[in-house]
Amino acid sequence: MDGGGGIMASAATGAMSSLLAKLAELLGEDCYQHQMQRGTRREVAFLRDELGSMNALLERLADADAAAPLDPQTREWRDQVREMSYDIEDCVDEYMGQLRRRSGGGGGGVVGLVLSYVGRVREMVSRCGIAEQIQELRARVVEAGHRRKRYKIDAAAASPSGAGVVPVDRRLPALYAELGGLVGVHGPRDELVRLLGDGEERIKVVSVVGAGGLGKTTLANQVYRNIGDRFDCKSFVSLSQNPDIGMIFRTMISQVKKDECELTGSGDLEQLINELRDFLQDKRYLIVIDDIWSTQAWKIIKCAFSENTCGSRIIVTTRIGTVAKSCSSPDCDLVYELKALSEDHSKMLFFRRIFGSEDKCPHQLEEVSVEIVKKCGGLPLAIITMASLLTTKSDTREEWMKVCGSIGFGLEKNSDVEEMNMILSLSYNDLPRHLRTCLLYMSMFPEDYVIKRDYLVRRWIAEGFIKVYGGRNLEEEGECYFNELINRNLIQVVDFQYDGRVYACRVHDLILDLIVSKAVEDNFVTIVTDKRQVPRMQGKVHRLSSDCTNVENMLTRSSMAVAHVRSLNIFRYSEQMPPLLNFRALRVLDLDGNENLESSYLEDIGKLFQLRYLRIRASNNITLPEQIGELQLLMILDLLNCYGTSELPASIAKLLNLKWLMAHRVTLPNGVGNMQALESLSLVVVDYTTPVTALQEVGSLTKLRSLGLDWRISNAHKGRMTYADSLVSSLGKLGASNLRCLTLISPWSLDFLLESWSPPPHHLQELSIKGWCLRKIPVWMASLANLTYLDIDIDVVQETVEMLASFPVLQFLKSYSNAPDPQERCLVVSNGGFRCLKKLNFVGWTNLMFLEGAMPMLEALEFQIVVHIVRAACGLGSPADLGIRHLSALKSLVVKIYCECARVEEVEALEAAILVSVSMLPNNPTPTLHKFREREMLADDAEQ
């Protein structure tokens, strides 16, 4: 059930949602009803009703805790109930497993009778044990209910302890910071002033967006001071996450009317809005609205600003990208993204805060200082906080190394660090409950770990963190979660893919510090690592992340320490790791970076009946045990980084709930047609050992969205036609259903498939065909209106270019061309071609020429130029006529220059021409030029 359509687990409620779903299943499914005793059914019904009420209260407490810290008594009750949910789920899982596995007999004959008798005795003993556990758990639930009433927990959820207390505004230091003490602010300030001061008479709203602690308030205040005198009136107001809009309006009125006597002391929102509108109607004003958290707050605040033509300006700062876009002037999209400080500015700020200047840093502290600055990631708040912390330490390298090692683990605490964490916590507390869970989960990854989007989303799915809305599937919904964390500047973008979607991210060390402390505090994640002192584990471990080699001293304290672990991440394998059999409750197992992993470690994996996710990364040959077929709840099997694994056990076909099977060239399993839940299958090998029936069964996988296939049936194989017909039939069926991504690899021609594919796979979005060169583009391919990604080897001629250019939504094209005909060695991309293409990688002995208006959205171009044929083939008078200057959206250019048989002066002229063309582009890309075969160049006076 976990990972279906609703959230099954969360940091706020523990396993409560998953547990309630299972209790409802026990009471609703006939297969369980017939096997449960009447008394047990009553107990299950009681648990469902009582825990349902507690779950609702836990959700309210989570929201209350985000607004203000809970009192210790309420926090203790919440923690105990949350822990109790895990214990009850473990008991229910064991009970449901027994009911599922219960069979009517043990075979025939005397042996069958004996086995049947033994099984019934074991079952009776086990059922007695389960009944006793349920009674004990019922007593715990009853006691938790009594405490709830005794301590008035419901009242605490309604009015948290901090309610009514007005905290000190932690932005005050930024408002009164003097320019002389600031670093790196001049450039952003001048850019923001430029955006505001373009002479436009209409009201202009500019949004400044960036992570917490990046200096948005400081920047806005510097601009406010710099240009404030140019306006008739001005106001600077700071918002909270739940702002008192009436108080905001009163503050604005008092600031803009500073020389007038009548100050508004009361009035409803409508009166305040009207008063502001009337006063500002004919004035040139400057308003700064600092730290806005929602579009709803902006919708109300902007009502006070009537449209005029006096050149008024509004600056909005926010941590959230969507809020920034909502606030900025819609016709201009004026969003200024504040960047982190450069390395030089970061060091300047750090050393200035501690020593007064960089040249006063003691020699023994230089290296560790640079490392500390690097960990701060250009975040001014972090740099200042670390500098303030280090002023309390002695000038010894050992002391500073301890501080450096504590960043990202939250061990070093003082008032400045607490202050910084409270500022960063505002972003965390503003998250919806499901996103708080997903962010906390990222504390399982080591510092600086690059996390790929799809990998992270699959982990969230397996954990049961994702709830599907509308028509989206689990992966699409998970990507929405991922994008929202980026939008809120809580995770950092590392890399983009061809279509602009974020491909990978990392967690800033200071955010990691925050979420590690919160995850440990809530007993959501337990982390063990060689890099720091490990806090003493309290209570039961639910999610365990191990990044160390000496884990035996940490993980083998007792067998019960890991008996309740639901997720296990091992980043470095140790032979002293506890056996998998100790992890009975495991749902997620990720063996990452395990060069010495032995297959024997996996021999008991078939007994982990709750396992949903299995990922193995190992450089040596790993053999999966046949018992893996017992994992009936397994959804995701990721063997992409097991390069030595080529065979899957036959029992793999028994995994009826498996959705993702990802491996590096494993043989197509026989019986694959049984795996009807499969949505992704790659990369599987089809060779002469593959049963034809297995290839035919692939066509029945109607839910399959992604397929990778390595075809190794040679043209000389006697059964080739049978295999070929089966492949054509299966891909035809998949193309007519849900197939979105297809990778075909073969050293032999697949023209038999590409020429006869019917009906065309109209849903196809990504297509990669590698290993052999197509003669031409198949006619049916031109009908792929949804194709965004194409990677093929083909003999490109002008007709091919024109066909590819007509694909309506193509964004990525990688192609290899080897045109033997000299007449086809210069290909022209004309005006209007490739309207949506963003990335082009063109390899081959053919030159490209771009006409004006070609590829209007192209951002990245990589291609090669064969110098000695470029003039003759393209008929150019100058290399500049390749038309690179026409690619107005270009941001990245890589050119491979083949110098063989070319004159030195021609190569130099070509390089110069490329640089001139690039200098004319608006995005000022820096070209990367690689020269090959320079030794084979001709002297300037040599004969061609």
TrEMBL record:
This protein's name: RGH1
Biological processes annotated in GO: defense response to bacterium; innate immune response-activating signaling pathway; plant-type hypersensitive response
Residue ranges annotated for the NB-ARC domain, each copy included: 200-355
Signal peptide: none
Segments forming domain Disease resistance protein winged helix: 444-515
Keyword Nucleotide-binding: yes
Gene Ontology molecular function: any one: ADP binding
SUPFAM superfamilies for the chain: L domain-like (SSF52058), P-loop containing nucleoside triphosphate hydrolases (SSF52540)
